[in-house]
Amino acid sequence: MDDTPVTGLPQVGELGALDYVVIALMLLISSGIGLYYRCTGGRQATLQEYMMADRSMSVLPVAFSLMASFMSAITLLGLVQEMYMYGTMFIMINISYIIATPIVCYFYLPVFFRLQKTSVYEYLELRFGYPTRLCASIAFSLQMTLYMGIVLYAP
């Protein structure tokens, strides 16, 4: 077999002209959508409309949004490795979700709904004051910054 590369085609690990065109086109379209809604005002004129979609969303798009926000490269790559290394012991996490989800749905979420709060940080400020909200926000921001580095590095 002859292992010489075919001329004119990009090699593994190289981006060709078409790749750059597709990337540039994707960035232009994404930027264009953002600029369009920024210039036209869109439907999100108030904080309530922006943060909560004016409380008009059905369950399905909210559920898909939450599911997508929890999926990452770590989830896709790590779950397989966890199952391989530890076998069915990993199922204990799923069992804890089955136990914790109804508790959260019936005891915690109604509190936020009655208070009309959009985040746990608003609740922390209402209950414990601004310094607690600030500490929780900083801790979460630091954790997410460190987590994003791992998520981007994993693939």
UniProtKB/TrEMBL annotation:
Gene Ontology annotations of biological process type: sodium ion transport
GO cellular component, one term: plasma membrane
The keyword Electron transport belongs to this UniProt entry's keyword annotation: no
Compartment(s): Cell membrane
Entries under InterPro entries matching the protein: Na/Glc_symporter_sf, Na/solute_symporter, Sodium:Solute_Symporter_SSF
Domain of life of the native organism: Eukaryota
Keyword terms, alphabetized: Cell membrane, Ion transport, Membrane, Sodium, Sodium transport, Transmembrane, Transmembrane helix, Transport
Regions crossing the membrane: 20-37, 58-80, 86-113, 134-154
Pfam family, one: SSF
Principal location: membrane
Single GO molecular function: symporter activity
Gene3D superfamilies xrefs: Sodium/glucose cotransporter (1.20.1730.10)
Membrane topology: Multi-pass membrane protein
Family membership noted in the UniProt record: Belongs to the sodium:solute symporter (SSF) (TC 2.A.21) family.
Entry protein name: Sodium-dependent multivitamin transporter
Organism: Hirondellea gigas
